[in-house]
Amino acid sequence: MRRRRFPLILALATALLLGLVPRAHAQGIVRAVGPIGMTVADADRSIAFYSQVLGFEKVSDVEVWGPEYEQLQGIFGLRMRVVRLRLGDEQIELTEYLTPAGRPMPADSRGNDRWFQHVAIIVSDMDRAYGRLREHRVRHASPAPQRLPDWNVKAGGIRAFYFKDPDGHFLEILWFPPGKGDAKWHRAADRLFLGIDHTAIVVGDTDASLSFYRDALGLTVAGESENYGPEQEWLNNVPGARLRITTLRAAEGPGIELLEYRTPRDGRPVPDDRKANDVAYWQVRLTVANVSAARRAAEAGKGELVSRGEITLPDARLGFPRGALLRDPDGHAVELVERSQ
User: Fold this and answer.
1) Distance between CA atoms of 157 and 234, rounded to whole angstroms?
2) pLDDT reported for residue 189
3) What is the torsion angle, in degrees rounded to the nearest 10, for the CA atoms of residue 199, residue 313, residue 83 and residue 32?
4) In this model, does residue 14 exceed pLDDT 90?
């Protein structure tokens, strides 16, 4: 019996080496997603926008500088003002580079460019939320709120609208009908803006992104759909938009939504020279148990290291004592950090 089993074991080992048997997904590497970070030109202006228009509350406001922060961000001579804001259970982080200032948002940024990223803010009433945005004269990215059609079983009835903050970062307000979205978005609330469901990033190849976020870092696929039609085109303001959408989640925090444009395929890649002080820059913070192990896994999944290895900070004013900064296969920034005790 043992002699018969040996050829089977040998064949399985050979198949694994040749990549013919799927690898098991990484388990438990990422414990939490967030906060979602973005670079801003004027922190005071952005604080006013996010708090007065969208209801965010300030959590912290610090300035940091020094060699460890330079090594983490890949920016020499930096001094950063970092402001953390909360909406519901989720947080965003606004970073103003007091020195050196980076480049402004490209004026011709489109919804299918691969530097696109947004946060999806859940609202309790779409009409009231859109009215509030109009009162504050926000810049439209969609012509109007869109209701996704009922034929799309996974997305039908969802209402959404894209707009921009003062720096030109894309944002989304999103309303879920009964039976869709996390149960917490359906609890009775007296607030108009409830929290952040996910951050969305445009990717060139969903399978390559899954190799990074799911297989290497252990995030779980929580939903998939294919969206197209006039409502989707108007929402993204991209003619002919047909998207493969995949949502990934960890145990805590908002999801990461992968947007692959099946059509059109003319979205521009993230510039090779984009840096953390450029206003088009976003980053997703992922809390892990061990930064060194997570960094090795991320690089095995085709992530590219930006920081000078794993950096131990002189203090935990940014909310973590040790971290590493990488780019995913499309150039989106991912910050791996160990949680402060």
Assistant:
1) 16
2) 86
3) 30
4) no
Nearest to 259 by CA among 293, 228, 285: 228
Chain center to CA of 78: 24
DSSP per-residue codes, 296-335: HHHHHTT-EE-SSSSEE-SS-TTS-SEEEEEE-TTS-EEE
* Dihedrals phi, psi of 46, to nearest 5 degrees: -70, -40
CA distances to 46, 198, 224, 259 from 243, in Å:
30, 17, 11, 6
Residues 16, 17, 23, 24, Cα dihedral to 10°: 70
CATH number for the segment(s) 30-104+276-338: 3.10.180.10
Same fold, 30-104+276-338 and 117-263: yes
Sign of torsion over alpha carbons 9, 11, 15, 18: positive
DSSP H helical ranges for 144-229: 206-210
In this predicted structure, the answer to whether residue 65 has a pLDDT above a threshold of 70 is yes
Please give the CATH topology (third level) of the domain spanning 117-263. 2,3-Dihydroxybiphenyl 1,2-Dioxygenase; domain 1 (3.10.180)
pTM: 0.91
Task: Answer for the pair 311, 68: CB distance below 8 angstroms, yes or no.
Answer: yes
Distance CA 88, CA 170 (A): 20
What are the φ/ψ torsions at residue 135 (nearest 5 degrees)?
Answer: -60, -35
pLDDT at res. 27: 65
DSSP 52-121: IIT--EEEEEEEEESHHHHHHHT-TT-EEEEEEEEETTEEEEEEEEEES--PPPPTT--TTSTT-EEEEE
Q: Any idea where the domains of the chain sit in the sequence?
A: 30-104+276-338, 117-263
